[in-house]
């Protein structure tokens, strides 16, 4: 199977991606989609980070930081007496995250660097290693966690939040929602990415040699004409179009991507349907003293 596709970077240059590395190539649209997603689940992530024990003065490593949503959230919790280092292999994402840290007034203690998690070697020890929606992309998440946990101080925190895509649903079921969810899950599954990483967090922590984690799961449940959920789902489908077309699953024209959000809104309103978005499961633990 040919797993590469070409997408235009924010600077206008075409870039070839391998869908096994990351289903969504980075584009301006993907930055916006990640921010929309970040806003959508922000309170769920903040809850997990607080439960995990992030607090003022801590030094935190954020794995697969994307455009910085989790890093900036952690930056608020640790404050200027602490620090956050976000790492991502996309240089474009790191640059966008740096700009956002400046805008947020956090650039003195929230920093970013571009690196691959498989080989990244930090220059310091951390009080916490965190991440959201990143373990699902790793070929060996337990091995990566085990290696990077070696850069934690005694009693260091490991806190991750991951999705369980197959458990999203519309109540009552509606055809366009079911179709769009199927496109999303098929695109991910065909790449070998884990669509239920939330359900695998417990076993992954244990396989990484970490202490048994505490866990919690939560999902946004949305309905009505004003929900941002239709746009979020449509943007997710849009970001997967290069992969969907390359895999022969469907095309932008067949999807009708330009008005997908509007049609989803109309469908949900007409059926008085609410959407349970994919549960986001958080897991956190501490190393021994
Ligand atoms: C869905 S995004 C999540 C971004 C961010 N954690 C958030 O929740 O907003 C996944 C990110 O993981 C990064 N990523 C995936 N595999 C990686 C690897 N092996 N090394 C570094 N970054 C990786 C991707 O580049 C992408 O930015």
UniProtKB/TrEMBL annotation:
<dbReference type="GO" id="GO:0008168">
    <property type="term" value="F:methyltransferase activity"/>
</dbReference>
<keyword id="KW-0808">Transferase</keyword>
<dbReference type="InterPro" id="IPR029063">
    <property type="entry name" value="SAM-dependent_MTases_sf"/>
</dbReference>
<feature type="domain" description="Methyltransferase">
    <location>
        <begin position="55"/>
        <end position="164"/>
    </location>
</feature>
<dbReference type="GO" id="GO:0032259">
    <property type="term" value="P:methylation"/>
</dbReference>
<dbReference type="InterPro" id="IPR025714">
    <property type="entry name" value="Methyltranfer_dom"/>
</dbReference>
<dbReference type="Pfam" id="PF13847">
    <property type="entry name" value="Methyltransf_31"/>
</dbReference>
<keyword id="KW-0489">Methyltransferase</keyword>
<protein>
    <submittedName>
        <fullName>Class I SAM-dependent methyltransferase</fullName>
    </submittedName>
</protein>
